[in-house]
Design goal:
Elements: E1 8-9, H1 11-16, E2 21-28, H2 36-50, H3 54-59, H4 61-72, H5 83-92, H6 102-114, E3 117-122, E4 131-134, E5 140-143, E6 147-150, E7 155-159, E8 162-165, E9 182-189, H7 196-210, E10 214-221
Parallel strand pairs: 1-4
Antiparallel strand pairs: 2-9, 2-10, 3-9, 4-7, 5-6, 7-8
Helix pairs in contact: 2-5, 6-7
């Protein structure tokens, strides 16, 4: 179990988001609390981002493209904030960054550095095949830290058991926990940004350094309309 197999994308999503790419990363990891050395290394980034206002946040190319994609799908990005934007706004309000575990902390750090919203999943909890679709009417799931979340009109990852992830909030069902050994990440790139490749490389390096990642694989998928 190395990483996600090919993720199919619905015609509805592709027509609304023609530049869509998915950056995929898979690795075997060891979950633990992030050491203080990680936070010391991250501190300058957190201080910098705490000074940003909404204009700077929304100007990040990956985040700007994702907000436009939400609007194209019929969703309000100011109501359902992308996870990358929510992290930036949390820092700008002086609330600091959550400390969850090494893998989640790395995902949040990469999201802050790059502007990408990144889905993080325990691959053993995902039942293929996986596809990305526009959330259907009355589609919901139990989201991390948010309870029952209405995901209609969001770009939603679904497996054989139903929806489990989107760029705003992942589900409790497939979340990364203390027992996770097989990690799968999805970088949502709605603008075909040049930043995707270095973002994947940064994440891979941090996982190897701070989560003892092995058998690490990355790839970029560019879905096409048939």
């Amino acid at each position: 179990m190395g990483m996600f197999d090919a993720i199919t994308v619905s015609e509805t999503v592709l027509k609304a988001c023609p530049a869509l790419r998915l950056g995929l990363l898979g690795a075997e990891v060891q979950i633990e609390a992030s050491p203080e050395a990680f936070w010391q290394e991250t501190e300058s980034l957190l201080v910098e981002k705490a000074a940003w206002d909404n204009t700077l946040i929304h100007a990040l190319p990956p985040l700007n493209a994702a907000r436009r994609a939400y609007k194209a799908l019929g969703q309000d990005p100011s109501r359902y904030r992308l996870s990358a934007e929510a992290l930036h706004r949390r820092l700008s309000k002086g609330q600091g960054l959550y400390r969850i575990n090494n893998c989640v902390d790395i995902i949040n750090r990469v999201s802050l550095e790059t502007g990408y919203s990144i889905g993080g999943y325990d691959l053993t909890k995902v039942l293929p095949p996986v596809h990305l679709e526009r959330g259907q009417r009355e589609m919901v799931y139990s989201a991390l830290g948010r309870g029952l979340l209405n995901i209609e009109a969001l770009p939603v990852l679904c497996d054989a058991l139903g929806p489990f992830g989107n760029p705003s909030s992942d589900s409790e069902r497939t979340c990364i926990g203390p027992e996770t050994q097989h990690l799968g990440l999805v970088f949502f790139d709605f603008g075909g940004q040049a930043e995707l490749e270095p973002a994947l490389a940064l994440c891979a390096r941090l996982l190897q350094t701070w989560a003892q990642a092995q058998n690490l694989q990355t790839r970029i998928e560019k879905p096409q309309l048939n």
